[in-house]
Amino acid sequence: MASGKALEGGNASTDSVSVAQSPSASTDPYDTPEDRALLRKIDINLLPVLTTLYLLSFLDRSNIGNAKYQDINVIGANYNTSLALYFVGYVLFEIPANVTIPRSLKRFNPRIWLPLLTLTWGIVSVCQGLIHNQAGLFAVRFFLGVTEAGLCTKCIHRTIFVFSMYYRRSERHFRVAIFFGGAAVAGAFGGALAYGIGRMDGVGGKRGWAWIFILEGLLTIVISLFAFFITPDWSHSASFLTEKERARLLERLSADSDAGQQESFRWDLVRSALTDHLVWAYAFLFHGFAFVLYSLSLFLPSIIAGLGFASWKAQLMTVPPYAVAAASIWIVAVIAARYKRRAVFIILSALVGILGYIILIATKTAGRQYVGVFLAAAGVYTGNALLLSWPGENVSGQTKRAVAVAMQISIGDIGAIAGVLVYRPSLSAHRFRTPHIISIGYLVFGALVAAYLWAAMARQNRLRAAARQSADANLAEKQPSSYDDSEERLIQGDRHISYTYQV
Protein backbone atom coordinates (compact mmCIF):
# COMPACT_ATOMS: atom_id res chain seq x y z
CA MET A 1 0.00 0.00 0.00
CA ALA A 2 1.46 3.32 -1.04
CA SER A 3 1.38 5.69 1.84
CA GLY A 4 0.00 8.59 -0.15
CA LYS A 5 -2.73 6.61 -1.94
CA ALA A 6 -6.31 6.16 -0.94
CA LEU A 7 -7.12 3.06 1.05
CA GLU A 8 -10.40 2.60 -0.78
CA GLY A 9 -11.02 2.32 -4.48
CA GLY A 10 -13.08 4.75 -6.49
CA ASN A 11 -12.87 8.29 -7.68
CA ALA A 12 -11.15 11.07 -5.90
CA SER A 13 -13.62 12.76 -3.66
CA THR A 14 -13.00 16.40 -4.53
CA ASP A 15 -10.48 19.07 -5.26
CA SER A 16 -11.25 20.88 -2.00
CA VAL A 17 -12.02 18.61 0.83
CA SER A 18 -12.42 18.30 4.56
CA VAL A 19 -9.40 16.52 5.99
CA ALA A 20 -9.18 15.52 9.64
CA GLN A 21 -5.73 15.94 11.03
CA SER A 22 -4.31 12.85 12.63
CA PRO A 23 -3.77 13.44 16.32
CA SER A 24 -0.12 13.62 17.14
CA ALA A 25 -0.53 14.66 20.71
CA SER A 26 -2.81 13.83 23.60
CA THR A 27 -4.12 17.37 23.86
CA ASP A 28 -6.31 19.22 21.39
CA PRO A 29 -4.81 22.61 20.48
CA TYR A 30 -8.30 23.85 19.58
CA ASP A 31 -9.93 22.93 22.89
CA THR A 32 -8.50 25.65 25.10
CA PRO A 33 -10.58 27.63 27.64
CA GLU A 34 -10.71 30.45 25.08
CA ASP A 35 -12.03 28.04 22.44
CA ARG A 36 -14.69 26.74 24.81
CA ALA A 37 -15.77 30.30 25.59
CA LEU A 38 -15.96 31.00 21.87
CA LEU A 39 -18.15 27.92 21.33
CA ARG A 40 -20.50 28.97 24.13
CA LYS A 41 -20.90 32.38 22.50
CA ILE A 42 -21.64 30.77 19.13
CA ASP A 43 -24.11 28.35 20.73
CA ILE A 44 -26.05 31.18 22.34
CA ASN A 45 -26.34 33.03 19.05
CA LEU A 46 -27.06 30.06 16.76
CA LEU A 47 -28.91 27.28 18.54
CA PRO A 48 -32.01 29.05 19.94
CA VAL A 49 -33.05 30.77 16.71
CA LEU A 50 -32.23 27.86 14.39
CA THR A 51 -33.90 25.30 16.66
CA THR A 52 -37.02 27.47 16.81
CA LEU A 53 -37.18 27.66 13.02
CA TYR A 54 -36.89 23.88 12.73
CA LEU A 55 -39.52 23.43 15.44
CA LEU A 56 -41.91 25.49 13.34
CA SER A 57 -41.13 23.61 10.14
CA PHE A 58 -41.77 20.25 11.81
CA LEU A 59 -44.93 21.63 13.39
CA ASP A 60 -46.28 22.71 9.98
CA ARG A 61 -45.38 19.34 8.50
CA SER A 62 -46.90 17.14 11.20
CA ASN A 63 -49.91 19.09 12.48
CA ILE A 64 -52.12 17.19 10.05
CA GLY A 65 -51.88 14.29 12.54
CA ASN A 66 -53.62 16.49 15.12
CA ALA A 67 -56.05 17.96 12.58
CA LYS A 68 -57.22 14.44 11.74
CA TYR A 69 -58.77 14.24 15.20
CA GLN A 70 -60.66 17.48 14.70
CA ASP A 71 -62.85 15.75 12.09
CA ILE A 72 -60.93 16.77 8.98
CA ASN A 73 -62.94 15.82 5.90
CA VAL A 74 -60.73 12.99 4.64
CA ILE A 75 -62.19 9.53 4.21
CA GLY A 76 -60.36 6.30 5.05
CA ALA A 77 -57.01 5.70 3.36
CA ASN A 78 -57.18 9.09 1.60
CA TYR A 79 -55.59 10.49 4.75
CA ASN A 80 -52.62 8.18 4.20
CA THR A 81 -52.47 9.29 0.56
CA SER A 82 -52.34 12.95 1.57
CA LEU A 83 -49.41 12.19 3.89
CA ALA A 84 -47.55 10.24 1.22
CA LEU A 85 -47.95 13.01 -1.36
CA TYR A 86 -45.88 15.35 0.81
CA PHE A 87 -42.95 12.95 0.65
CA VAL A 88 -43.45 12.26 -3.06
CA GLY A 89 -43.11 15.97 -3.82
CA TYR A 90 -40.12 16.22 -1.56
CA VAL A 91 -38.23 13.21 -2.95
CA LEU A 92 -38.79 14.25 -6.58
CA PHE A 93 -37.11 17.62 -6.03
CA GLU A 94 -34.58 16.84 -3.30
CA ILE A 95 -31.46 15.71 -5.17
CA PRO A 96 -31.73 18.24 -8.06
CA ALA A 97 -32.06 21.04 -5.52
CA ASN A 98 -29.42 19.79 -3.14
CA VAL A 99 -26.55 19.32 -5.62
CA THR A 100 -26.46 23.12 -5.99
CA ILE A 101 -25.71 23.63 -2.28
CA PRO A 102 -22.03 24.58 -2.63
CA ARG A 103 -22.93 27.42 -5.02
CA SER A 104 -26.36 28.54 -3.83
CA LEU A 105 -25.61 28.63 -0.11
CA LYS A 106 -22.58 30.83 -0.48
CA ARG A 107 -24.47 33.13 -2.82
CA PHE A 108 -27.24 33.85 -0.33
CA ASN A 109 -27.07 35.16 3.19
CA PRO A 110 -28.48 32.66 5.75
CA ARG A 111 -30.09 35.64 7.50
CA ILE A 112 -32.25 35.91 4.37
CA TRP A 113 -32.85 32.41 3.09
CA LEU A 114 -33.48 30.57 6.39
CA PRO A 115 -36.29 32.94 7.46
CA LEU A 116 -37.52 32.98 3.83
CA LEU A 117 -37.73 29.20 3.88
CA THR A 118 -39.71 29.31 7.13
CA LEU A 119 -42.00 32.05 5.79
CA THR A 120 -42.81 29.95 2.72
CA TRP A 121 -43.68 26.91 4.82
CA GLY A 122 -45.96 29.05 6.94
CA ILE A 123 -47.85 30.34 3.91
CA VAL A 124 -48.36 26.84 2.52
CA SER A 125 -49.47 25.63 5.94
CA VAL A 126 -52.11 28.37 6.12
CA CYS A 127 -53.36 27.20 2.71
CA GLN A 128 -54.09 23.78 4.24
CA GLY A 129 -56.73 25.48 6.38
CA LEU A 130 -58.43 27.03 3.34
CA ILE A 131 -59.12 23.83 1.42
CA HIS A 132 -62.67 22.63 0.75
CA ASN A 133 -62.19 19.07 -0.51
CA GLN A 134 -59.80 16.13 -0.59
CA ALA A 135 -58.31 17.13 -3.95
CA GLY A 136 -57.32 20.47 -2.44
CA LEU A 137 -55.62 18.75 0.48
CA PHE A 138 -53.74 16.43 -1.88
CA ALA A 139 -52.47 19.39 -3.91
CA VAL A 140 -51.40 21.45 -0.89
CA ARG A 141 -49.56 18.52 0.73
CA PHE A 142 -47.70 17.79 -2.52
CA PHE A 143 -46.65 21.41 -2.91
CA LEU A 144 -45.57 21.56 0.74
CA GLY A 145 -43.09 18.81 -0.12
CA VAL A 146 -42.03 20.55 -3.34
CA THR A 147 -41.55 23.83 -1.48
CA GLU A 148 -39.28 22.27 1.11
CA ALA A 149 -37.18 20.55 -1.55
CA GLY A 150 -37.37 23.03 -4.40
CA LEU A 151 -37.17 26.45 -2.78
CA CYS A 152 -34.22 25.95 -0.45
CA THR A 153 -34.28 22.17 0.13
CA LYS A 154 -34.79 21.11 3.70
CA CYS A 155 -34.20 23.35 6.69
CA ILE A 156 -31.98 20.78 8.36
CA HIS A 157 -29.64 20.63 5.31
CA ARG A 158 -29.16 24.36 5.25
CA THR A 159 -28.70 24.57 8.99
CA ILE A 160 -26.10 21.79 9.01
CA PHE A 161 -24.25 23.75 6.33
CA VAL A 162 -24.33 26.83 8.59
CA PHE A 163 -23.05 24.69 11.46
CA SER A 164 -20.12 23.62 9.26
CA MET A 165 -19.14 27.31 9.03
CA TYR A 166 -18.89 27.57 12.83
CA TYR A 167 -18.06 24.14 14.28
CA ARG A 168 -15.44 21.49 13.72
CA ARG A 169 -16.57 18.03 12.64
CA SER A 170 -16.36 16.52 16.11
CA GLU A 171 -18.37 19.43 17.54
CA ARG A 172 -21.30 19.34 15.12
CA HIS A 173 -23.30 16.25 15.99
CA PHE A 174 -24.09 17.48 19.51
CA ARG A 175 -25.41 20.76 18.06
CA VAL A 176 -27.39 18.98 15.34
CA ALA A 177 -28.95 16.74 18.00
CA ILE A 178 -29.96 19.79 20.03
CA PHE A 179 -31.34 21.32 16.85
CA PHE A 180 -33.31 18.18 15.92
CA GLY A 181 -34.76 18.14 19.43
CA GLY A 182 -36.99 20.90 18.09
CA ALA A 183 -38.91 18.19 16.22
CA ALA A 184 -39.82 16.46 19.48
CA VAL A 185 -40.69 19.77 21.13
CA ALA A 186 -42.87 20.54 18.10
CA GLY A 187 -44.79 17.33 18.74
CA ALA A 188 -45.39 18.22 22.39
CA PHE A 189 -46.24 21.83 21.60
CA GLY A 190 -48.42 20.82 18.66
CA GLY A 191 -50.52 18.40 20.68
CA ALA A 192 -51.35 20.94 23.37
CA LEU A 193 -51.89 23.73 20.84
CA ALA A 194 -54.12 21.58 18.65
CA TYR A 195 -56.31 20.72 21.63
CA GLY A 196 -56.82 24.40 22.44
CA ILE A 197 -57.31 25.53 18.84
CA GLY A 198 -59.71 22.68 18.17
CA ARG A 199 -62.13 24.26 20.61
CA MET A 200 -62.56 27.09 18.08
CA ASP A 201 -64.71 24.78 15.98
CA GLY A 202 -67.35 26.89 14.22
CA VAL A 203 -65.62 30.26 14.77
CA GLY A 204 -65.80 32.28 11.56
CA GLY A 205 -67.66 29.41 9.93
CA LYS A 206 -64.56 27.21 9.93
CA ARG A 207 -63.97 23.83 11.49
CA GLY A 208 -61.46 23.30 14.28
CA TRP A 209 -59.02 21.42 12.03
CA ALA A 210 -58.89 24.40 9.63
CA TRP A 211 -58.00 26.75 12.48
CA ILE A 212 -55.12 24.43 13.47
CA PHE A 213 -53.52 24.91 10.05
CA ILE A 214 -54.30 28.62 9.83
CA LEU A 215 -53.16 29.70 13.29
CA GLU A 216 -50.07 27.51 13.43
CA GLY A 217 -49.16 28.69 9.93
CA LEU A 218 -49.63 32.32 10.97
CA LEU A 219 -47.43 31.69 14.01
CA THR A 220 -44.70 30.45 11.67
CA ILE A 221 -45.09 33.50 9.42
CA VAL A 222 -44.84 35.95 12.31
CA ILE A 223 -41.76 34.32 13.83
CA SER A 224 -40.08 34.07 10.41
CA LEU A 225 -40.42 37.85 10.04
CA PHE A 226 -38.63 38.39 13.35
CA ALA A 227 -36.01 35.85 12.27
CA PHE A 228 -34.88 38.13 9.45
CA PHE A 229 -33.33 40.35 12.15
CA ILE A 230 -31.79 37.75 14.48
CA THR A 231 -30.66 34.82 12.28
CA PRO A 232 -26.82 34.67 12.24
CA ASP A 233 -24.71 35.46 9.20
CA TRP A 234 -21.73 33.51 7.83
CA SER A 235 -18.89 32.99 10.30
CA HIS A 236 -16.46 35.30 8.49
CA SER A 237 -18.88 38.23 8.87
CA ALA A 238 -20.78 37.31 12.04
CA SER A 239 -21.58 40.55 13.82
CA PHE A 240 -21.71 38.92 17.27
CA LEU A 241 -18.01 37.96 17.06
CA THR A 242 -15.02 40.26 17.51
CA GLU A 243 -12.26 40.38 14.89
CA LYS A 244 -10.04 38.27 17.14
CA GLU A 245 -12.81 35.69 17.64
CA ARG A 246 -13.52 35.49 13.90
CA ALA A 247 -9.82 34.95 13.20
CA ARG A 248 -9.64 32.14 15.77
CA LEU A 249 -12.82 30.58 14.42
CA LEU A 250 -11.49 30.50 10.85
CA GLU A 251 -8.21 29.06 12.11
CA ARG A 252 -10.08 26.24 13.87
CA LEU A 253 -12.12 25.49 10.73
CA SER A 254 -9.11 25.56 8.38
CA ALA A 255 -7.38 22.88 10.45
CA ASP A 256 -10.41 20.59 10.31
CA SER A 257 -12.78 21.16 7.39
CA ASP A 258 -13.38 22.52 3.90
CA ALA A 259 -15.88 25.17 5.04
CA GLY A 260 -13.85 28.06 3.65
CA GLN A 261 -12.84 26.40 0.38
CA GLN A 262 -14.24 27.31 -3.04
CA GLU A 263 -15.31 24.30 -5.07
CA SER A 264 -16.67 24.12 -8.62
CA PHE A 265 -19.48 21.70 -9.35
CA ARG A 266 -18.34 18.65 -11.32
CA TRP A 267 -20.26 15.55 -12.30
CA ASP A 268 -17.36 13.27 -11.35
CA LEU A 269 -17.82 14.43 -7.75
CA VAL A 270 -21.48 13.40 -7.95
CA ARG A 271 -20.35 10.02 -9.30
CA SER A 272 -17.91 9.73 -6.41
CA ALA A 273 -20.81 9.96 -3.97
CA LEU A 274 -22.96 7.53 -5.95
CA THR A 275 -20.22 4.88 -5.94
CA ASP A 276 -19.31 5.18 -2.25
CA HIS A 277 -20.73 2.30 -0.19
CA LEU A 278 -20.66 4.41 2.97
CA VAL A 279 -22.83 7.08 1.35
CA TRP A 280 -25.42 4.44 0.47
CA ALA A 281 -25.23 3.06 4.00
CA TYR A 282 -26.02 6.50 5.48
CA ALA A 283 -29.03 6.65 3.16
CA PHE A 284 -30.34 3.21 4.14
CA LEU A 285 -29.74 4.00 7.80
CA PHE A 286 -32.14 6.93 7.61
CA HIS A 287 -34.52 4.86 5.47
CA GLY A 288 -34.96 2.51 8.41
CA PHE A 289 -35.39 5.27 10.97
CA ALA A 290 -37.52 7.57 8.77
CA PHE A 291 -40.21 4.89 8.49
CA VAL A 292 -40.77 4.97 12.24
CA LEU A 293 -40.08 8.70 12.69
CA TYR A 294 -42.84 9.90 10.40
CA SER A 295 -45.32 7.10 11.00
CA LEU A 296 -45.03 7.77 14.73
CA SER A 297 -45.19 11.58 14.49
CA LEU A 298 -48.15 11.56 12.09
CA PHE A 299 -50.12 8.75 13.73
CA LEU A 300 -49.37 9.17 17.42
CA PRO A 301 -52.84 10.65 18.18
CA SER A 302 -54.39 7.69 16.32
CA ILE A 303 -52.21 5.18 18.19
CA ILE A 304 -53.11 6.70 21.57
CA ALA A 305 -56.79 6.97 20.68
CA GLY A 306 -56.65 3.28 19.77
CA LEU A 307 -55.72 2.52 23.38
CA GLY A 308 -59.25 3.55 24.36
CA PHE A 309 -58.91 7.28 25.01
CA ALA A 310 -61.28 9.90 23.66
CA SER A 311 -59.99 12.01 20.78
CA TRP A 312 -59.52 15.13 22.92
CA LYS A 313 -57.56 13.12 25.50
CA ALA A 314 -55.44 11.59 22.71
CA GLN A 315 -54.40 15.10 21.67
CA LEU A 316 -53.20 15.99 25.16
CA MET A 317 -51.63 12.59 25.81
CA THR A 318 -49.21 13.07 22.92
CA VAL A 319 -47.46 15.81 24.91
CA PRO A 320 -45.63 13.72 27.61
CA PRO A 321 -44.07 11.19 25.16
CA TYR A 322 -42.72 14.01 23.00
CA ALA A 323 -41.36 15.79 26.06
CA VAL A 324 -39.52 12.63 27.12
CA ALA A 325 -38.22 12.21 23.55
CA ALA A 326 -36.79 15.74 23.59
CA ALA A 327 -35.11 15.14 26.95
CA SER A 328 -33.71 11.83 25.69
CA ILE A 329 -32.23 13.51 22.60
CA TRP A 330 -30.44 16.15 24.64
CA ILE A 331 -29.15 13.78 27.34
CA VAL A 332 -27.83 11.22 24.86
CA ALA A 333 -26.32 13.98 22.71
CA VAL A 334 -24.29 15.18 25.71
CA ILE A 335 -23.07 11.65 26.46
CA ALA A 336 -22.26 10.88 22.81
CA ALA A 337 -20.33 14.15 22.48
CA ARG A 338 -18.37 13.44 25.66
CA TYR A 339 -17.30 9.97 24.54
CA LYS A 340 -17.03 10.93 20.85
CA ARG A 341 -19.14 7.97 19.74
CA ARG A 342 -22.13 7.83 17.43
CA ALA A 343 -22.90 4.33 16.14
CA VAL A 344 -23.27 2.65 19.52
CA PHE A 345 -25.85 5.23 20.66
CA ILE A 346 -27.81 4.92 17.40
CA ILE A 347 -27.98 1.15 17.90
CA LEU A 348 -29.03 1.55 21.55
CA SER A 349 -31.72 4.04 20.50
CA ALA A 350 -33.05 1.50 18.00
CA LEU A 351 -33.20 -1.13 20.75
CA VAL A 352 -35.16 1.21 23.03
CA GLY A 353 -37.60 1.91 20.18
CA ILE A 354 -37.97 -1.82 19.49
CA LEU A 355 -38.73 -2.45 23.18
CA GLY A 356 -41.42 0.24 23.03
CA TYR A 357 -43.13 -1.36 20.05
CA ILE A 358 -42.92 -4.82 21.65
CA ILE A 359 -44.70 -3.46 24.73
CA LEU A 360 -47.38 -1.91 22.49
CA ILE A 361 -47.95 -5.27 20.82
CA ALA A 362 -47.59 -7.68 23.74
CA THR A 363 -49.38 -5.94 26.60
CA LYS A 364 -53.14 -5.69 27.03
CA THR A 365 -53.72 -2.72 29.32
CA ALA A 366 -53.77 0.89 28.16
CA GLY A 367 -51.37 2.02 30.90
CA ARG A 368 -48.64 -0.42 29.91
CA GLN A 369 -49.12 0.31 26.22
CA TYR A 370 -48.78 4.00 26.95
CA VAL A 371 -45.37 3.22 28.51
CA GLY A 372 -44.52 1.58 25.19
CA VAL A 373 -45.36 4.85 23.44
CA PHE A 374 -42.84 6.67 25.65
CA LEU A 375 -40.07 4.20 24.85
CA ALA A 376 -40.85 4.15 21.13
CA ALA A 377 -40.80 7.95 20.92
CA ALA A 378 -37.58 8.25 22.91
CA GLY A 379 -35.76 5.64 20.85
CA VAL A 380 -36.98 6.78 17.44
CA TYR A 381 -36.35 10.50 17.92
CA THR A 382 -32.97 10.04 19.60
CA GLY A 383 -31.70 7.73 16.86
CA ASN A 384 -32.76 10.15 14.14
CA ALA A 385 -31.15 13.08 15.93
CA LEU A 386 -27.80 11.28 16.03
CA LEU A 387 -27.74 9.93 12.48
CA LEU A 388 -28.76 13.00 10.48
CA SER A 389 -25.45 14.84 10.72
CA TRP A 390 -23.26 11.74 10.36
CA PRO A 391 -22.59 11.99 6.59
CA GLY A 392 -21.97 15.71 6.95
CA GLU A 393 -19.02 14.87 9.21
CA ASN A 394 -17.62 11.88 7.34
CA VAL A 395 -18.04 12.77 3.66
CA SER A 396 -15.49 15.33 2.47
CA GLY A 397 -15.84 17.70 -0.44
CA GLN A 398 -18.78 20.08 -0.69
CA THR A 399 -20.39 18.58 -3.80
CA LYS A 400 -19.93 14.99 -2.69
CA ARG A 401 -21.22 15.84 0.78
CA ALA A 402 -24.23 17.68 -0.65
CA VAL A 403 -25.15 14.67 -2.78
CA ALA A 404 -24.60 12.32 0.17
CA VAL A 405 -26.94 14.34 2.39
CA ALA A 406 -29.51 14.55 -0.42
CA MET A 407 -29.36 10.78 -0.92
CA GLN A 408 -29.73 10.20 2.80
CA ILE A 409 -32.88 12.29 3.06
CA SER A 410 -34.41 11.20 -0.27
CA ILE A 411 -33.94 7.47 0.30
CA GLY A 412 -34.96 7.99 3.91
CA ASP A 413 -38.17 9.69 2.85
CA ILE A 414 -39.03 6.70 0.68
CA GLY A 415 -39.14 4.87 3.99
CA ALA A 416 -41.39 7.63 5.30
CA ILE A 417 -43.78 7.08 2.36
CA ALA A 418 -43.96 3.40 3.26
CA GLY A 419 -44.57 4.26 6.90
CA VAL A 420 -47.51 6.59 6.32
CA LEU A 421 -49.09 4.10 3.89
CA VAL A 422 -48.72 1.12 6.24
CA TYR A 423 -50.61 2.82 9.10
CA ARG A 424 -53.86 2.67 7.14
CA PRO A 425 -57.39 1.80 8.34
CA SER A 426 -57.28 -1.70 6.83
CA LEU A 427 -54.24 -2.54 8.99
CA SER A 428 -55.42 -0.87 12.20
CA ALA A 429 -56.80 -4.06 13.78
CA HIS A 430 -55.52 -5.00 17.26
CA ARG A 431 -54.25 -1.46 17.89
CA PHE A 432 -52.08 -1.33 14.73
CA ARG A 433 -50.35 -4.61 15.57
CA THR A 434 -49.21 -5.32 11.98
CA PRO A 435 -47.79 -1.82 11.38
CA HIS A 436 -46.01 -1.98 14.74
CA ILE A 437 -44.38 -5.31 13.78
CA ILE A 438 -43.23 -3.76 10.49
CA SER A 439 -41.82 -0.81 12.47
CA ILE A 440 -39.77 -3.24 14.56
CA GLY A 441 -38.39 -4.71 11.34
CA TYR A 442 -37.34 -1.28 10.09
CA LEU A 443 -35.61 -0.48 13.39
CA VAL A 444 -33.74 -3.79 13.27
CA PHE A 445 -32.65 -2.92 9.73
CA GLY A 446 -31.48 0.53 10.86
CA ALA A 447 -29.48 -0.96 13.73
CA LEU A 448 -27.78 -3.44 11.38
CA VAL A 449 -26.83 -0.65 8.96
CA ALA A 450 -25.41 1.41 11.84
CA ALA A 451 -23.35 -1.61 12.89
CA TYR A 452 -22.06 -1.98 9.31
CA LEU A 453 -21.03 1.68 9.19
CA TRP A 454 -19.33 1.35 12.58
CA ALA A 455 -17.36 -1.73 11.52
CA ALA A 456 -16.40 -0.38 8.08
CA MET A 457 -15.22 3.01 9.31
CA ALA A 458 -13.42 1.60 12.36
CA ARG A 459 -11.55 -0.79 10.06
CA GLN A 460 -10.52 2.06 7.77
CA ASN A 461 -9.37 4.11 10.76
CA ARG A 462 -7.15 1.22 11.91
CA LEU A 463 -5.68 0.72 8.42
CA ARG A 464 -4.98 4.41 8.04
CA ALA A 465 -3.38 4.63 11.46
CA ALA A 466 -1.04 1.80 10.47
CA ALA A 467 -0.28 3.51 7.16
CA ARG A 468 0.50 6.77 8.94
CA GLN A 469 2.82 4.94 11.33
CA SER A 470 4.62 3.38 8.38
CA ALA A 471 4.89 6.76 6.65
CA ASP A 472 6.31 8.32 9.81
CA ALA A 473 8.92 5.53 9.97
CA ASN A 474 9.89 6.24 6.37
CA LEU A 475 10.30 9.92 7.17
CA ALA A 476 12.47 9.05 10.14
CA GLU A 477 14.69 7.06 7.76
CA LYS A 478 14.69 10.06 5.38
CA GLN A 479 12.81 8.15 2.71
CA PRO A 480 10.44 10.14 0.48
CA SER A 481 6.74 9.95 1.34
CA SER A 482 3.59 11.67 0.06
CA TYR A 483 1.79 11.08 3.35
CA ASP A 484 1.79 14.78 4.24
CA ASP A 485 1.40 16.08 0.68
CA SER A 486 -1.34 18.74 0.88
CA GLU A 487 -2.25 18.41 -2.80
CA GLU A 488 -2.63 14.66 -2.42
CA ARG A 489 -4.92 15.25 0.55
CA LEU A 490 -7.11 17.60 -1.46
CA ILE A 491 -7.41 15.14 -4.33
CA GLN A 492 -8.22 12.06 -2.24
CA GLY A 493 -10.41 13.71 0.38
CA ASP A 494 -12.02 11.29 2.82
CA ARG A 495 -10.03 8.42 1.29
CA HIS A 496 -6.65 9.86 2.22
CA ILE A 497 -4.74 8.16 5.03
CA SER A 498 -4.81 11.30 7.16
CA TYR A 499 -8.63 11.37 7.20
CA THR A 500 -10.19 9.85 10.33
CA TYR A 501 -13.86 8.88 10.34
CA GLN A 502 -16.11 9.92 13.20
CA VAL A 503 -17.61 6.64 14.45
From TrEMBL:
Q: Predominant location of this chain?
A: membrane
> Which residue ranges have biased composition labelled Polar residues?
11-29
Q: Which residues cross the membrane?
A: 79-100, 112-131, 176-197, 209-230, 279-307, 319-337, 344-363, 369-390, 402-423, 435-455
- Annotated region (Disordered) at 1-32
Q: Name one Pfam family in it.
A: MFS_1
List the PROSITE patterns hit by this protein, alphabetically: MFS
The Major facilitator superfamily (MFS) profile domain is annotated at: 46-464
Protein's membrane topology: Multi-pass membrane protein
| Cellular compartment(s) | Membrane
What this protein is called in its record is MFS general substrate transporter
